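HUMAN: Now follow token order:
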Amino acid sequence: MKKQRFAAALAAVAVGVTGCAAAPMATAGARSTLTASAETVRALAECPELPGLPTARCGQITVPRDRSNPGKGTIDVGFALVPHTDTSQPGLGTIVPNPGGPGSSTIDLAGQLFAESLQPLLDRRDLLLIDTRGVGRSTPLSCAALDGPARVFAPLPQQRRLIGECGDQLGDTVSDYTSIAVADDVDDIRATLGLSRLDLLGISYGTYLMATYAQRYPDNVRTISLAGAYAINVDTTGEVNAVAFRRAVRLVCERTGRCDGDRVISDLAALMKRLRKHPEKLTVVHEGVKHRVTLDEWQMTSVAGKVYSNQPDTATELALAKAAAAARHGDLAPARALVRKSLLKSAEDYSYGPGLLSDAQSWAVTCHDYLRDFDYADPVAKRTRQYTSTQAKLDNADFRPFSAQVWVSRADYDTGACLRWPADATAQPPFPAGAAMPDVPVLVLSGDLDANTPIESGDAAAAQFPHATHKVITGAGHTPASTPEGVGEIIDFIRDAKV
């Protein structure tokens, strides 16, 4: 069945390739290679709009929106190829990275960073940047409900309503942005360029996407590098993240000598209790617009969680500790400042628009692919009862210093975000637990300060593969690929992999 689907994809590419240069590239049946041929590179268009990638060549393919239903039309998927620089020797491979999200542009948002980080490999290896469908150069997706940064300032019930409205606005395209569809797009581009096997590099959500690709196209994978990883069929939004949060707080205090970890956690618990009983209003001004925000337990939990869900920032980590300590003495000003700073950063990110960051595409993937505690076949009221009943069984002690139901609904990690999503009978993870995965070299990296995709999630991600190596990078947060140590591990792994 998989082989037949692959052949169908090749046929679709053969008629769908448009390419910026409108010139033919490699065709099905041609001898496959680890890097694109000189002829193929020349057939692609120059990319003068990418000054940070001066040698890049751009292309585009047109693929079915829904490969199981060709009648739904097509969608364009853009890519940029950075050819290896040493043309006197055969190329050794093609690295295909994804920066995560979902919903982030690989080409215009992260392409230059990938090229700079992987530069020691790019003399003999190509770098293939692909914007996933719905983002950047791949038919960017938006919906009126999530247009702009307004969602960032909304309370939890309104955020859920806006996400549900976005799903309604996507209409019959709501199920067209799955990780499976993206993986099939990646393989169509691989076939178009005449490549035999790929070196996959996934960051955060990219680790989910690359696992999906590897499961569907095991013969087309040379190596897999996963940084900030989580598994397809394991819930990574709950207790393990709270465990990682407490671990990270203690490690920061221990390493800086500027706080006591247990005291910080105790102070945070007291702050959450206070805001649970006495929420207050906060004004946040973004681009001249005043937003009235409720500073409550949910808002503060969301902000505290984000402190340890990104690249480590010692100043912000210590600011959180000081804010919790100040609140013990009745001073909420530092906590208010942290919340304002966090919301403004999120608003800035979501102001980029779908050319760089698509909120609509992100939720389309999340609400289709990820595990959930309710059934889309049920009406919203019944879904909500199912979800609430499940959350009520959580033990607050496992989520200290936060309450369980607030932690699992914190902003951008809300397990109930899709409660109002349209009924989608196709919604399910890309593959079931225990599915066969390729026995290729796999490197999984975790950061010991990461409460987003923590060490425990890396263990689960590595366990998906027959023989994966899992390493923990000291001092790294989300993700280890943003540290020199993590990049060094990835470079050594791809260069030295025995395949």
Notes: The two ends are 26 Å apart (CA to CA). Residues 148 and 351 are 5 Å apart (CA to CA).
